[in-house]
Amino acid sequence: MHELDELLELQERDSELDRLLHRLETLEEREVAAAAAESSQSARTALDAATERVMALRREQKSLEDEIEMLTARIEEANRTLYGGTVKATRELLGIQSEIEMLEKQRSALEESAIEKLLECDMGEEARLLAQADFDSAESSLASATDRLNTAIDKLEREIKSAEEARDLARSAASALAALELYDQLRAKHGGIVISRLSDGVCGSCRLQISAVFETQLRNETGTPRCEHCSMILLP
Ligand SMILES: [Zn+2]
Question: Residue 80's domain is classified under what CATH number?
């Protein structure tokens, strides 16, 4: 046991906590949920466009029907005049007759357009229903992706809480060590492994071989032993 073994333990707890916090940041479920939100958003846009189109087609349909109704009223009016007996002059009667014919021609052209428009309305409505189904399915995917994300976050947050408790314990065990301040500085600056045990003459931080002379120095070190290459804390 080295007198700085508590620091190694603290580093392990700090690294575990870092790993969990990093996982919280980079949860795969987060990406899946973001993609599901994007799909749902574009399905919503498509549905809005399809709904808008159906409404426009129906307005056009309604205006065709209004025009047809208006023409029908004019035709009826002209027929009443024609057969009402108030107009006697043949020329005038012929004029009314040809006006009726013209109005009827206009009306039948409009009726054809109205039938076409009705078909367009049906197709538009079909497209709207498909867009609605797409949107519903995108919404349900989003809901389950969000559920999975929240479950994953809850689970990780519980792990983080217990890792924090373990880290706090390790930290109070190391609190009396003079090297704690150096450990904190190195970790703040470099992150990751800042203290390691010499293993087969190799530094655990930089993985470089330590000279035999330096190894002897390390063993006799009265202060905090540090690697000759990377200056990280190195326990002989
Ligand atoms: Zn080193």
Answer: 1.10.287.1490
How many domains, the chain?
A: 2
Q: How far apart are the CA of 148 and the centre of ligand 1, in A? A: 42
How do residues 161-178 score in pLDDT, each as one tens digit?
A: 999 999 999 999 999 999
Question: Residue 141 C-alpha to ligand 1 middle, in angstroms?
Answer: 50
pLDDT band with cut points at 50, 70 and 90 for residue 31 = very high
Domain membership of residue 224 as a residue range: 178-236
Q: Is the domain of 119 the same as that of 215?
A: no
Identify each DSSP E strand in the chain by its residue range: 195-197, 233-235
147 and 185 belong to one structural domain: no
User: Which of 157, 176, 195 is the last residue before a domain boundary?
Assistant: 176
pLDDT at 49 over 90: yes
With b for 16 or more beta-carbon neighbours within 10 A and e for fewer, the 134-168 pattern comes to: bbeebeebbeebeebbeebeeebeebbeebeeebe
pLDDT value, residue 191: 86
- Enumerate residues 6+ apart whose C-beta is below 8 A from 60: 117
Q: How far is the CA of 179 from the centre of ligand 1 (A)?
A: 17
